[in-house]
Amino acid sequence: MVMSNLKSIDKEENWGIGTKCIQSGYRPGIGEARVLPIYQSTTYKYEDLDQVERLFSLQESGNKYSRTGNPTLNALEAKVAALEGGVGALTTASGQAAVFLAISTIVQAGDHIVASNAIYGGTYTLLDVRLRKLGIETTFVDPEAPIEELRKAFKPNTKIVYGETLGNPALGILDFDKFSALAKEFDVPFLVDNTLATPFLSKPIKHGADIVIHSGTKYMDGHAVALGGIIVDGGTYNWANGKFPDFVEPDEQYANTSYTGKFGNKAFITKARAQYLRDYGPVLSPINAFLINLGLESLHLRVPRHSDNALKLAKFLQNNEAVNWVNYPGLEDNKNHERVKKYFDYDGASGVLTFGLKGGRQAIKTFFASLKVAALVVHVGDARTSVLHPATSTHSQMSPEDRLKAGIPEDMIRVSVGIEDADDIIADFEQAIAKAVNVGETEQIAG
Ligand SMILES: *Cc1c(COP(=O)(O)O)cnc(C)c1O
């Protein structure tokens, strides 16, 4: 009898990513619902006054009120923590709320952040405008600058170093070794937004991140139906190093509990829930937690398919004469391909690619109007192929010069390649590009 497989299957941490996607988080007992139930309840019944007292002083963990915990949300949190290899997680109403909550749990007025400039536009504005108004300064750095250059951005009051695994729309992959070395050198927590890569492609904690942030709205949901965010605590950072007194000193509102003292390597995620989710209130709804959890059940099938389809479309576009350039890190000749090999668990780079179409604005307009399978949508990660022209939408507030500096030329089209048949996606692009080329040529003759 061969027992070796039986032994390892007992432990959830030994499961493969597909088993975790489907079964981690919610583990029903006999006679209980096989599928994660939607606990559509704001309140919970208590045993007696003593239990209420224990719950409200953090001496006992449990659900008090759905703003700080709900069984459907808890199951999703446990699943994503398992997928990322963290010690705990916290869901929020949106990805944007997850970024804000993770940062506010760590910094206060007078503190400083070093952030990659190749990050999601919403996060850039949060750091550059909103947090500055609250007295929190951010220095943005070019993530490709040499380490000697990046060191200069750090100050005595720096409390966070921040980056994204796979940036959008520039599609650069973070140099984890360099950023985690800086985080260690300056002894600050390393926060990584892993939204586009998902834990299927890359697990930042393995590469030195302390905290991982997700917009669950993109590939986790995967069907464009629910907004949500998730913060995962790697349990790796030592908050008791003297820089973060709020983590160590007694919290008077919770019977003088010290987060590091009582919760050890879960100090961060406990503090985020007990203080910031409670007081700011951006809680995920149970139905959205259910939908994101349902999406996660096929993450390990969808992300490779998105990636394979994107690679096929990228190769087709590379060989099309009407295309100026193609950027997809999954392409062997892409400047980020080495990092796919180094930091990604799969030879692919999500469904997101960009390309430049010849022929000017009119050709681009005709291209968009001619698509039959893909649709013009401001979204990524959907099962359906989505396309966008950043210069007239997400980045239209910038001047053409600033856009170019941010790596967004006028001819750029962003594609979030879906999981339809690759042949159909390619045929759709082929016919739409052919129509665009005709218009572009007519325009040139007329001009
Ligand atoms: C979309 C996105 C966010 C914000 O998430 P929402 O769920 O839309 O609030 C944050 N980071 C990245 C990388 C994203 O793509």
TrEMBL record:
Coiled coil: none
Keyword set includes Oxidoreductase: no
Modified residues (N6-(pyridoxal phosphate)lysine): 218
BP terms from Gene Ontology: cysteine biosynthetic process from serine; L-homocysteine biosynthetic process; transsulfuration
Keywords: Pyridoxal phosphate, Transferase
Pfam families, sorted: Cys_Met_Meta_PP
InterPro entries: Cys/Met-Metab_PyrdxlP-dep_enz (IPR000277), OAc-hSer/O-AcSer_sulfhydrylase (IPR006235), PyrdxlP-dep_Trfase (IPR015424), PyrdxlP-dep_Trfase_major (IPR015421), PyrdxlP-dep_Trfase_small (IPR015422)
GO CC aspect terms: cytoplasm
Names of the cofactor(s): pyridoxal 5'-phosphate
SUPFAM superfamilies with a match to the protein in the record: PLP-dependent transferases
Keyword Transferase: yes
Catalytic activity, EC: 2.5.1.49
TM stretches of this protein: none
A GO MF term: O-acetylhomoserine aminocarboxypropyltransferase activity
Highest taxon listed in the record's lineage: Bacteria
Record-linked NCBIfam families: OAH_OAS_sulfhy (TIGR01326)
Record-stated family: Belongs to the trans-sulfuration enzymes family.
PANTHER family given in the database record: HOMOCYSTEINE/CYSTEINE SYNTHASE, O-ACETYLHOMOSERINE SULFHYDRYLASE
Protein name: O-acetylhomoserine aminocarboxypropyltransferase
Species of the source: Butyrivibrio fibrisolvens
UniProt lineage: Bacteria, Bacillati, Bacillota, Clostridia, Lachnospirales
